[in-house]
Fold:
Amino acid sequence: MRALVMSLVLVFPLLAGLAVAHEPDHFSVIVRKDRHDPMEVNLIVNDSVQYINADERENMTHHIGYDKNGDNDFDDDGEFSSGVLNNSCDWDNEPDCRTAWVFSVNSTDLIGSFTLIDLMSDGTYREVRLNVGSDDHSTPMPEIGECFGAGCDEVMFIPESSSESGRSSLQNAMILASLITFLISLGLTASILADNRAALAEGGDESEQVELR
Ligand SMILES: [Ca+2]
Ligand SMILES: [Ca+2]
Structure:
């Protein structure tokens, strides 16, 4: 019972830790002339990723997005995109000019794997990957007392219970040894008594034989 209580004391904080909400992470992708760094991004709901145009070719723009229906634009239902990204901007004269796109995963509707298209102003394009997973707090909880996760042996077989179970094993062994010793002693005593009785009986027979002569 004590071991069970101690196990629960250690296991409950771990279960509570599983339920802690995911802190949003923020990622960056550097958009270069020949690749994205990285080419694949893995997010979960509430994370965000920023695509930064670092392609220094003159007047080269990038337009990154999800073309769900494959008609070479990002304007259809369920599609999203960066808009045109420049390498640099003269914001005094072009206040709407942009060099980066922050994409925030703010809906579970975005869970899935997307092949994004990076359409460049020279007419070429590049495919990159965006994977969105759920911020899943419903990780199956282990049954009370069930071992789970790395190092669960250390958690479930804590020193307190180990010494307790070791002590009872030692006690059992000592009781068994005492019992065996007692039985052996009992057997030896019975054997000695039997020998003595046989010797006495034999001695009585000899004296009777002497008298008969
Ligand atoms: Ca489209
Ligand atoms: Ca369209």
